[in-house]
Amino acid sequence: MNKSNxxxxxxxxxxxxxxxxxxxxKKNITTLVCCFAKNxxxxxxxxxxxxxRNIVVVEDIKKSLMLEVFIFINRPNxxxxxxxxxxxxxxxxxxxxxxxDDEDDDDDDEDGYLGDIENNTNNTNNEDNQIMENxxxxxxxxxxxxxxxxxNEYSNSECGCVLCNNLNTxxxxxxxxxxxxxxxxxxxxxxxxx
Length: 194
Known about the structure:
single chain
């Protein structure tokens, strides 16, 4: 799959369907943005936890959005995550029909997050990562705040894990990165303006 060509995202999970209604396109774009943001916010919260801080600041979110630009389309469960988010947002059933059920799905992220970044997706690591993420998610819900106030002085995480190493160096990669298509240019422009 050509990672710089986003045409595969256009159809909303069905590559056979050629044209979509304007309403369906809006739903698909909303779904993509929500999934992208969810992943970035999750990354920011994990980074803060690894940094022994308890407040997510704008800098954490910005760096996480930068990282997400590079890893979003490589996530092994992307199609499933997009379908899940679309079902939640637009209350659709398994057939894609609206069912009017407002039931929320409170399941935590099941993507094996750290394994995704390392491209290490064997079952043992995914199970271990899921347990760690569930525990971390509960800790973050109870102990983390999101604010634009900078507590004391911002500093990078001193943790040596893959996630923290990637976020600690993302600004250098971002500064040297040249977008290859309109979507990437749009993302770069808006993230730069944060």
